[in-house]
Structure formats: C-alpha cells, structure tokens
Amino acid sequence: MLVLTRKVNETIKIGDEIEVIVLAIEGEQIKLGISAPKDIDIHRQEVYQAIQQENNQAANLSKNLLNLLKKNYKND
Predict the structure, then answer these.
(1) 60 vs 58: CA distance, rounded Å
(2) Which residues contact 32 (CB under 8 A, 6 or more apart)?
(3) pLDDT tens across 11-52, in order?
(4) Are residues 53 and 34 in the same domain?
(5) C-beta separation of 43 from 37 below 8 A
(6) CA distance 25 to 32
(7) How many CB atoms lie within 10 A of CB 18?
C-alpha cells in the first residue's frame, strides 16, 4: 500500500487518466474529488461490496434456474 500525505487542493495521479484531489478537510472527514474517464466505475467501498454481493446472488440464481431448466428438459 502506498501512503501519501496531501493538503487541500493537492492531487494524486493514478495512471494517465485518473486524478484525485483533496477538496476539503473538515474534522476527521476528508472530501475528495475524483476525475476519471466515464468507463471507469467509482464507488465507495460499501457500495462496491453491495454491488458485488447482488451480482453474486444474481449469478447463483441464474445458475440454479439453468440447472432447473436442464433437469426439466431431460424429464420431458
């Protein structure tokens, strides 16, 4: 893990296309601005985890449905 120290209005570059800027520091909270291409998804960690969980549940449901359809097709 890379650990950096930044002040308000200072930036961090990630590759050529992503820039993170410290917008404000208020108590124990930091406001960040992230500039990235539209094809790159940016989510808070808890939102990303929820999306991954929903995707896994949908994949399992699809797999279960496919197995059920295969089983019913063999029985016909």
Answers:
(1) 5
(2) 20, 21, 22, 23
(3) 999 999 999 999 999 999 999 999 999 999 999 999 999 999
(4) no
(5) no
(6) 9
(7) 14
What is the pTM for the complete model shown?
0.68
User: Does residue 22 lie in a domain region?
Assistant: yes
| Count: domains in the chain | 2
* 3-class SS of residue 18: strand
Whole-number Cα distances in Å, 27 to 4, 16, 44, 55: 19, 31, 20, 36
In this structure, the chain runs to a length of 76
Residue 38 amino acid letter: K
- Encoded tokens for 44: 């808070």
Q: Which domain holds residue 48?
A: 43-76
